[in-house]
């Protein structure tokens, strides 16, 4: 029963899989694996919370998702398998027992609803709430070291955006004594290599409070993303820390089903008969972060030369107060060159046909004038010659 309670606590505290907050110590040597299950969506898939932009689709941009794995789905047209740091003996980063990573991937790249539907998704499995052996429990929870390893792989494989919707939430006094050099080094390398790192700001809970230090969201080069209830209100459950805080909608009406081709509206841990007694709706800063990651993929498609620092500067220049909300339209419209000033263009008209009669009169006048001139010259010459004869006679 302890492993079931462990799964429930993990799923109910999304963003969810807070790999520094798992506190299970007496998992049986051969615990039964129980994967999360989704509640199928009833009815048509509703419109996405973020309207798509016609200016870009994420074409040519790789987004790494460091999470619980991403299951293949018809909506994910460009899915790439990365490392499995949870089960390296039997690696499969395209397996998602927790449903979390697949939902995150769908927000970014689902063909019908994704923010950047033509982006490539690189799945790196770094954490999971489902374990099968005692010696796997610690590894499955994830660590700052394995997070750094995942970031390094994302950079090595050409990711321009790295989405991290898992968090380590620590009390300030504990954070002061935490050695983060390995993580800091990986984040610095990502910055130098042109990869923008986006992380969930964290969900408020007894283990994660406003005063907590959240990794990697509080790192200076990471874009931290809080969750909005509406365009102007931060959700009650959302933390708002981090040096580079933006915000985006954190609630989903529908997420990709990691068990099939459809969509789900909630997720939970089933009992032995498959019944989910306490399904949880899809809300959390975990699902706000990929909205921003998708928007960054759109921006980088249009401006592949942008550095992470320039991306951050651009986003914060258009973010709306008071919580730094952004939309794809605002971000991409602000990246367009300024419109050229409108200049008046003279109206073109047909040439006026020549006045042939006037031209004829002009020719006649010219000929007459020419004739008179010739006559005058002739008479002048004749008179001069006649005058010389008279003088000689």
Question: Mind explaining what this structure looks like?
Answer:
The strands form three sheets. Strands 2, 3, 4, 5, 7, 9, 10 and 11 form an eight-stranded mixed sheet that branches. The termini are far apart. The chain has 393 residues and is α/β, with parallel strands linked by helices. It contains ten helices and 15 strands.
Short description:
With 393 residues, the protein is α/β, with parallel strands linked by helices.
Uncertain segments = 1-32, 339-352
Proportion in β-strands:
15-25%
Instruction: Write the CATH architecture name.
Output: 3-Layer(aba) Sandwich
- Total helices: the number is 10
Average pLDDT, to the nearest integer? 81
CATH class: Alpha Beta
- Major sheet attributes: 8 strands, mixed
State the main characteristics.
393 residues, alpha/beta, Rossmann fold, 8-stranded mixed beta sheet, 15 strands, globular
Task: Summarize the helices and strands and which ones pair or pack.
Layout: H1 2-12, E1 37-40, E2 62-67, E3 79-84, H2 100-109, E4 120-125, H3 134-141, H4 144-156, E5 161-164, E6 168-170, H5 172-176, H6 181-192, E7 196-200, E8 213-215, E9 223-230, E10 233-234, E11 245-249, E12 251-252, E13 255-256, E14 263-268, E15 280-283, H7 285-302, H8 308-318, H9 328-334, H10 356-392
